[in-house]
Every structure is written in C-alpha cells, then in structure tokens.
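Appendix C: a fully annotated inverse folding record. The material below is reproduced so that readers can follow the format used throughout the book. The structure is listed first as tokens, followed by the designed sequence.
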C-alpha cells in the first residue's frame, strides 16, 4: 500500500478500529479522520507520514488509543490533545521530529500510557506527573526536556518511567520508594544530583534498577552507583540551571540534622566564595606571569640594542676626538715661525753645544 489515505474512508460511519501500520503510506495525516466519530483505535505507526499532526484529532471523543509513532511528523503537539472530552486515549507519538514544548493542557488528561520519546521536545514536562492520576507508563526519553525532578509527585499507579537522555535536574524524590508497582526506571544521562533513594524493595527484577538506570548524571551518588555520598546525614544538592547555582536541601530530617546541614550550607557557601576568589587570583597571577615572561623574552633584545647604541656613541666620540686632534696639529704647523723651526736633532743636543755647521764657520776678525 502506498500513497495517501483516501477520503472515501469517511463513509464508514461506524468504523471503530483503523490500523494502517507498517505500510508505505505517506503525505500528511488527513484531517478528515476526525469525522470517524465512532473510532476507538487509530494506528498509523511505522509509515512515512509527514507534516504536522492535525489538531482536530482531539475531537475523537471515543478514542482509547492513538498511535502516530515512527513517522516523519514535525511541528508541535496539538494543544487540543489536552482537551479530549470523552475517554483519555493512550498516546504514542515517539520516533518523530516533533518540536516545541509539551502543552500544559496535557497535564489535565491523566493518560494511562504516554510515549513522547525520541523527538526534539524542549522545556517542562512536569505537568504529566499527577500524584492522584492513573498513569502507568511515561516515556520521555531522548528529548531536550528541562525541569526540576525533585518537585515532581509521581502517580502511585506508575509502572514504568523512562527519562534518559534529557537535561532534567534536581534530585530523585524519596517518594519514588513508595511506588511499589514500579518495574522499570531509567533517569540516566541527565543533570541529576544527590543521593539515590533505596529502591531495592520495589521490584523482584534486580536488573530494573541497576547502575545503568542512573549513570552519566551531574552528581548522583549512592547504590547502585560506585560513587559514595560525601554527606551521610542527607544530601546537599548543588544544581546548575540557566547558569544560576542554587542549593536544595532534601527534607525529612531531624532538628539536629537540620542544624548540622545549616552549618554545612554556610561552610559550603564560604568554600564557594574562597574558590571564586582563588580563581580570580589565579587569573591575575597568570596574567602577571605572562607579562614577566614577555619581559624576559624581550630583555636580551633590549640589552643587545642598548649595547649596540653605546658602541655607536663611543665610535662617534672617538672619531670626533681624532678629528679634533688632527685639526690642532695642522694649525700648529701653520702658526710656528721659520726661525723657531729647529730640527729634531738640534732639539735633542745638550744646551751650550754648537751645531756642526756653526763650528765650521770662520771667525770674523774685527
């Protein structure tokens, strides 16, 4: 079977079950399907349907199950899916390309089973958890959901909860230990912190709550993880959300423990301040070190340049002195009288001695 669903199907006014899964049907999900008022089961899974989900499917008041999973659907989840006026259907929208946030109206429905996994949904999903609801299965895995799990109240009817691969923060509520029907739990690959509540009494299937259910979180500790909690009294949960660091202290402790936790919180804040100051000091020291290293690197070049400048100055001074000396010598030769010019040999003769020429001259007889 290929192509799209023909509109002639609306002539089947009493049709209660329509299953067209595992075919090659494509195109948008037809809006005219909302005309099948008696429909209780609609399964279009494992096909090639694309486009947005028709909002008017929320008009099917007798629908008990809606399977649109494993298609190529895009866009948001219709807000009308939170306003079913008749029975509340089990809803399977997984393995699509749905985007946006989950409509808050879905929190009013109390779906028995809801699977929104493997989409691109963002924002809050806490509205799907209702303490007094009858939800049995919730699968929100592999989205980009972000909410505080510690503020969630789980329905006591919960059997399976899968939240892996999201951005969920906070701590795991101790209330989860009261869910005696819980058979599967996976909160791995999130931003959770704090001590893992003891869930060993919840099921006869040990593998349902092994280490893989909790790995790759921000700072979860305690069994079944190998990471030990540093605080034995209760856990102080440090959460990072929207670049704001806050501290959340789990409740249900004695007054003595409360005092001790208060002291721990003060010490923690003090240590955080010290760490911030230390980080600032390290930045300053690093910049100063870089500056000194640059100066040391340039020092030989500066010294060499200064030495070169000194040599040039000395050479210029020496040349000037030589030029001055030569000038003085030339002037002395020009100014000296002829009669004062005596040979070097005469200058060296002792005083009173006569030169050889003088002795040879005859004496005049007067």
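Designed amino acids, in order:
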């Amino acid at each position: 079977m290929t192509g799209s669903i023909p509109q002639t199907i609306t002539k089947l006014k009493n049709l209660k079950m329509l299953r067209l899964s595992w075919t090659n049907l494509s195109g948008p999900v037809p809006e005219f399907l909302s005309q099948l008022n008696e429909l209780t089961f609609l399964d279009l899974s494992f096909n090639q349907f694309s486009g947005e989900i028709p909002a008017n499917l929320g008009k099917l008041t007798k629908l008990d199950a809606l399977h649109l999973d494993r298609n190529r659907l895009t866009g948001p989840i219709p807000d009308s899916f939170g306003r079913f006026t008749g029975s509340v259907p089990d809803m399977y929208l997984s393995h699509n390309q749905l985007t946006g946030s989950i409509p808050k109206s879905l929190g009013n429905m109390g779906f028995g089973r809801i699977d929104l996994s493997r989409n691109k949904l963002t924002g809050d999903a806490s509205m799907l958890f209702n303490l007094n609801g009858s939800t049995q299965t919730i699968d929100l895995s592999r989205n980009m959901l972000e909410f505080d799990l510690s503020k969630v109240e789980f329905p006591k009817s919960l059997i399976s909860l899968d939240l892996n691969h999201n951005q969920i923060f906070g701590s795991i509520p101790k209330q989860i230990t009261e869910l005696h029907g819980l058979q599967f739990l996976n909160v791995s690959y999130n931003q959770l912190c704090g001590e893992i509540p003891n869930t060993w009494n919840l099921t006869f299937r040990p593998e349902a709550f092994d280490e893989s259910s909790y790995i790759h979180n921000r700072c979860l500790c305690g069994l079944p993880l190998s990471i030990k909690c540093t605080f034995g009294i209760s856990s102080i949960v440090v959460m990072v959300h929207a670049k704001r660091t806050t501290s959340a202290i789990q409740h249900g402790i004695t007054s003595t423990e409360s005092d001790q936790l208060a002291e721990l919180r003060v010490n923690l804040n003090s240590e955080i301040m010290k760490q911030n100051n230390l980080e600032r000091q390290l930045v300053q020291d690093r910049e100063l070190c870089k500056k000194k290293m640059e100066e040391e690197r340039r020092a030989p070049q500066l010294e060499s340049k200064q030495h070169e400048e000194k040599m040039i100055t000395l050479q210029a001074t020496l040349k000037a002195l030589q030029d001055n000396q030569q000038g003085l010598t030339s002037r002395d030769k020009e100014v000296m009288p002829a009669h004062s010019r005596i040979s070097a040999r005469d200058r060296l003769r002792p005083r009173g001695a006569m030169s050889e020429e003088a002795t040879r001259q005859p004496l005049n007889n007067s």
